[in-house]
Amino acid sequence: MTDTATVSHSFQAEVSELLHLMVHSVYSETDIFLRELVSNASDACDKLRYEAIARPDLIGEGEPPQIRIIPNKAAGTLTIADSGIGMERQELIDHLGTIARSGTKAFVQKLAEAKDGTGLIGQFGVGFYSAFMVADRIVVISRRAGENDVWTWTSSGGAGFEVAPASEDDAKRVTRGTEIVLHLKDDAKKYLETYEIERIVTAYSDNIQFPIMLVPEEGEPRQINSASALWQRSKSELTAEDYSKAYKSIAHAFDEPAMTLHYRAEGRYSYAVLLFAPSTKPFDLFEPARKGKVKLYVRRVFITDDADLLPAYLRFIRGVIDSEDLPLNLSREMLQNNPQLAQIRKAVTTRVISELEQLADKDPDNFDKIWAAFAAVIKEGLYEDFERRDKLLSLARFTTTSGERRSLKQYVEGLKENQTEIYFLVGDSIERLKSNPRLEAAKARGVEVLLLTDPVDAFWTSARLEFDGKPLKSLSQGDIDFDPIPVTEPKADDEAQPAADEANTIALIKDSLGEHVTDVKVSTRLTTSASCLVAGSHGPDRELERILSQQARGARTKPILEINLRHPLVVAVAKAAADKAKVDDLSFLLLEQAQILDGELPEDPAAFAARLNRLVLQGVATA
């Protein structure tokens, strides 16, 4: 050994909080710990097999990669051992002392709030720490492949851990790989029973690609998983339960897949595909890196889960693509530039979207689960993937003013007489959009409007799209002409009132508001409200500009104020033409109430309150 000292280390702050949650957990599904440790052992074996492509001596004449589970009732310990890549001293410190993942604090907070956090644990890749749900002390002994030194990591789930050279006996026993020894709590001793171990492995780890050997206290070791590449088997051999188990093993999931895609591509390139669409949203779906989780294998050898085998807007898809033709020694640069891999990406992406189309048609309930969980991600493709934009637009489902979630095909089938555009409104909530005054003219004509509330909606709608020859038109941007569409609702009382003089009223309001607005126009959107704000025909929509200004903290362009000439407040502006102060107050009130209805604060809230008080008091005085 090069170092004989035992060194104590503190856990990363988030790890300490996480361990506290684990040690004092009330989670009902503690089985997760074994699934996670077996999965980590499988990853270690995968890494060894991959590194051995360039360095065959790492395996040499030694034990082939496998996983062993060893219960010891007398000692009260459960050992999960692998003959994989192993870890050296610094790797033990880095891998078992920190959570190297963005959003860690948010994850820990969400885990603390969850009644059952087992799904979050698996989704977020902190499975090792789940062992503290069942163990009050953990000892990890590891030797990295090709290294002489063996190290021991020890923790009781407190504030820190110790790393020291392994004992002579441990060093002789661990010739390569990692042993994790769990000193089980009294209420977790059931996991020493062989039938419990087999039950968990069968349920969650049957499709792990390496033999999982159960080493009982009496009798011979025996393999307890099938260790078959399920994606290489024929669909006719497999059942729905087989796919469910494979999904849970491959994706570290607890839900059921909403869609399963399994096929083999033959021809110029040969590869097997087994992909799943989850039915629930994973915790890390909106991480900034937007990385996919589809694993790349070459001839059943794991290469990487970082090959971006699908576009970012399909990053919720989980599964495996196993190529027969790619070279085993793929470097990161080759992964990015390999033309064969690019063809596989293109073909598989097209197939996934086609499968989603079929699912939407044949099994709308499961498609609705996917759309409810991943709509905000799929819609990223509407502005990123020009080639497949039309297909994605057909797939999309939108909540509308009808109260239903509908496709654009269904929307077009219900177009009103003389309606030539598909209308939409973007905002931050359905409730606020439903009360938006810009809907008034559409509502009076029975025109359905798409209500879009995902942040991504403000971006893809800026692309000026059309469906079935009908352009998508924002109700908060540019001019709207509803006149050709017949009115179906009876006229409001305001519409029976005489209108204010257009030229004079607009001139008065423009003079009062000055540079606070770009323009003042008579509205074709309003029937009962006094005013609303819209964006010009050129440039960003109001909602997109709001999002961009929040991110860049920059100034926004001035809006256009649209007014309803029949509304009493607008009529009052014209009547007060000789009273400049009152015209100013009324004009700013028209602007500021429109801002409030858009979910914004007036530019000067104090001035708004003073102005409102003056007008109310004037009304009270004349009542």
Automatic annotation (TrEMBL):
<keyword id="KW-0346">Stress response</keyword>
<dbReference type="Pfam" id="PF00183">
    <property type="entry name" value="HSP90"/>
</dbReference>
<feature type="binding site">
    <location>
        <begin position="102"/>
        <end position="103"/>
    </location>
    <ligand>
        <name>ATP</name>
    </ligand>
</feature>
<keyword id="KW-0547">Nucleotide-binding</keyword>
<keyword id="KW-0143">Chaperone</keyword>
<dbReference type="GO" id="GO:0051082">
    <property type="term" value="F:unfolded protein binding"/>
</dbReference>
<feature type="binding site">
    <location>
        <begin position="123"/>
        <end position="128"/>
    </location>
    <ligand>
        <name>ATP</name>
    </ligand>
</feature>
<dbReference type="GO" id="GO:0005524">
    <property type="term" value="F:ATP binding"/>
</dbReference>
<dbReference type="InterPro" id="IPR003594">
    <property type="entry name" value="HATPase_dom"/>
</dbReference>
<dbReference type="InterPro" id="IPR037196">
    <property type="entry name" value="HSP90_C"/>
</dbReference>
<keyword id="KW-0963">Cytoplasm</keyword>
<feature type="binding site">
    <location>
        <position position="332"/>
    </location>
    <ligand>
        <name>ATP</name>
    </ligand>
</feature>
<dbReference type="GO" id="GO:0016887">
    <property type="term" value="F:ATP hydrolysis activity"/>
</dbReference>
<dbReference type="InterPro" id="IPR036890">
    <property type="entry name" value="HATPase_C_sf"/>
</dbReference>
<dbReference type="Pfam" id="PF13589">
    <property type="entry name" value="HATPase_c_3"/>
</dbReference>
<feature type="binding site">
    <location>
        <position position="40"/>
    </location>
    <ligand>
        <name>ATP</name>
    </ligand>
</feature>
<comment type="function">
    <text>Molecular chaperone. Has ATPase activity.</text>
</comment>
<dbReference type="GO" id="GO:0140662">
    <property type="term" value="F:ATP-dependent protein folding chaperone"/>
</dbReference>
<feature type="region of interest" description="C">
    <location>
        <begin position="547"/>
        <end position="623"/>
    </location>
</feature>
<keyword id="KW-0067">ATP-binding</keyword>
<feature type="domain" description="Histidine kinase/HSP90-like ATPase">
    <location>
        <begin position="29"/>
        <end position="188"/>
    </location>
</feature>
<feature type="binding site">
    <location>
        <position position="178"/>
    </location>
    <ligand>
        <name>ATP</name>
    </ligand>
</feature>
<dbReference type="InterPro" id="IPR020575">
    <property type="entry name" value="Hsp90_N"/>
</dbReference>
<feature type="region of interest" description="A; substrate-binding">
    <location>
        <begin position="1"/>
        <end position="332"/>
    </location>
</feature>
<feature type="binding site">
    <location>
        <position position="36"/>
    </location>
    <ligand>
        <name>ATP</name>
    </ligand>
</feature>
<feature type="binding site">
    <location>
        <position position="82"/>
    </location>
    <ligand>
        <name>ATP</name>
    </ligand>
</feature>
<feature type="binding site">
    <location>
        <position position="87"/>
    </location>
    <ligand>
        <name>ATP</name>
    </ligand>
</feature>
<protein>
    <recommendedName>
        <fullName>Chaperone protein HtpG</fullName>
    </recommendedName>
</protein>
<dbReference type="InterPro" id="IPR020568">
    <property type="entry name" value="Ribosomal_Su5_D2-typ_SF"/>
</dbReference>
<comment type="subunit">
    <text>Homodimer.</text>
</comment>
<dbReference type="GO" id="GO:0005737">
    <property type="term" value="C:cytoplasm"/>
</dbReference>
<comment type="similarity">
    <text>Belongs to the heat shock protein 90 family.</text>
</comment>
<dbReference type="InterPro" id="IPR001404">
    <property type="entry name" value="Hsp90_fam"/>
</dbReference>
